[in-house]
Amino acid sequence: MKGLFKGLIGILIFIAIWQVLAMMINKSIIPAPAETIRLLMEFLFSSHILLAAWETAWKVFLALLLVMLIGMPAGLFLGLSDTFYDMFRPIIMLIQSVPVISWLSLVIFAWGIGWKGPVFIAFLSLLPISILTTVSGVRNLDKNLLEMARLYQVPGNRILKDIYLGSLLPFIAAILDVSIGQAWKVILVAEYLSGGSGLGVEILRMRMNIDFPGVWALTLIAVLLGIVTERLIKLGLRRLSNQWTIA
Amino acid sequence: MDNCLMVDNLYKAYGSLTVLDNWNLTISKGQRLVFLGPSGAGKTTFLRIISRLEEPSSGVINSFDQKIGFVFQEPRLIPWRSVKDNLLFVNQNGDYQDILARLRLTGFEDYLPSQLSGGMRQRVNLARALITRPDLLILDEAFSSLDLRIKASIMEDINQLWLENRFTIISVTHDLKEALCLADRIIILSGRPSHIINEIKVDLGQDRSFSSPDLLKLESQLIDIMCSTQPEV
Questions:
Q1: Which top CATH class is B1-62+140-145+169-233?
Q2: Does the predicted interface ipTM exceed a cut of 0.85?
Q3: What are the backbone dihedrals phi and psi of residue B4, each rounded to the nearest 5 degrees, phi first?
């Protein structure tokens, strides 16, 4: 309860600073909080904006799903083999260092405008985090547990489920923690730059119409959606973790 | 009597460091053997070799393809799994309720290892070794961190289970009381590179409590032997 109270105070301070800035700077660039929130409420009941939010949301989920489905097994494999890790590490670092804008040029050229580009760019941006975090998870694994399992000749599938997955669960949580916010940001930028549909495209449309309050209201929607999805995924992960512990 | 384990000219070195030097040993089925020796004498290395966790540098180990239960020095329990799941992890068809009852752990099936005391965790470690119905039970300084009362109680449980099942026990310890409580044979090792320097037959019958007069008498004899055979540090 105390934490919630402190959080509310933080939000109030933020709104106060926002209000001051809106009064000091040109209102068309930084609109007043009241105006932005009014517009936000309007957008929340607009089927057009809700559809755009949904378009962005499913791309975020798809990118996260692909990152987990491909990044974790790849990280597991590379964590188990020093040779392959040394072989693939430069490629992973290369993917991590390539700017989003370079990927964008490539995907627009390859696929044109549409959902594939933003999903692919978000996937490539998050894949190195997923792989490298899983590798450190595997490397932090308690070798004594593995030795115990080897001594008792426990089948590989049970070792994978009971030891590997259990050890990696905190690392999976860390991957999701870092990736959710990042996925929203990358997808929005990719939509903004490569078009198609979604909140990024709506932000671009507002900017073209020089509707800055609209840009801010849409940004608030994206932030709220980011926070909500993060909470939902964390809640799901906690439930999974509890179920898995008592299974 | 059938043999459980035959060790012939066993030699183990890590690079230029020789740990086990020409060990020859035969252990009969159902025997209780305890190794006593200074730290670094390769006692744990020997246990790891007979459990096939390590390879010898040379020599032959014939362990007659038997089931091994290993009670590690540290419990090595899966932290996110309950007591019951930790036992079923090594033997899905094991009668965990019976084993837990034998080791006075009934009611703790669903506890996580972190919710148990050190003594209870070591009992679970022992229960996990026993649920495999081992022919050979290996104890690697398994109770060194426990207080005397808990140690005595676990020794009593092990001896009772041994009386009922007659599995072979090979144990490593620094504790003379623990050795005498558990052994039919005590093997005394030299410092590194270790070899077998003495062997004592323990004939104490069934009364092996820590305060038994016979055990205490034998303990003082053992101290004399250890002092005369171990180099001073």
A1: alpha beta
A2: yes
A3: -100, -35
